[in-house]
Amino acid sequence: MRGRKKKVLVGSLLVLLTAGGALAPGAMADGGEGKKIYEAHCLSCHGPQGDGKGPGARHLSPPPPDFTDRAFWENRTDSFLFHVIQNGLGPMPGWSDTLSPSSIADVLSYLRTFRR
Ligand code: HEC
After folding, report:
1. Quick one: which of 52, 32, 22 has its CA closest to 109?
2. Which one, 17, 60, 69, 94, has the greatest CB density within 10 A?
3. Residue 102 belongs to what domain range?
């Protein structure tokens, strides 16, 4: 029962994220919580500017992507990115044990603010 409830919650969150992205790009940008989470867990690899040049990124292969690159955002949906942050990709660890779905949504909103 508990597991099922969690799935439903994550599902509706994804719908919210997707709808928010389609209706009003940037409207969900989060400068508070998302920024704090980014600085604590992501900045070391993804860099203060989100361009993938963090101090911990030097030896990673493949390297972290450039979040300032418009093309990066054009090729990926929110639900895909949400999944990647939860489960990890290549050298990046997954964050589902550390971050709640709503924290992941916050940090994802913050990542969007790097887009130029
Ligand atoms: C240990 C270094 C490291 C940390 C810490 C890290 N990442 Fe990553 N991240 C990477 C690397 C390397 C990639 C590229 C993986 C690949 O392309 O195989 C990546 C890729 C990504 C991607 C893009 C996936 C794609 O579609 O190509 C997102 C989004 C992302 N990270 C978000 C985050 C968030 C949010 C955090 C903090 C909660 C975080 N990362 C922490 C190293 C890291």
Report:
1. 32
2. 17
3. 28-112
> Whole-structure pTM over 0.85, yes or no?
no
Angle at 14 between CA 11 and CA 16, to 5 degrees: 110
* Locus of tokens 């887009």: 115
CATH number of the domain where residue 96 is located:
1.10.760.10
**What pLDDT digit, counting tens, does each position of 84-112 carry?**
999 999 999 999 999 999 999 999 999 99
Token digits of residue 32: 């508070």
Q: Whose CA is nearest to atom 36 of ligand 1?
A: 42
Query: Three-state DSSP class for 48?
Result: coil
Query: Environment class of residue 113 by beta-carbon count within 10 Å: exposed (0-12), middle (13-18) or buried (19+)?
Result: middle
Residue 90 identity (one-letter amino acid): G
Residue 23 lies in a domain: no
SS3 for 26?
coil
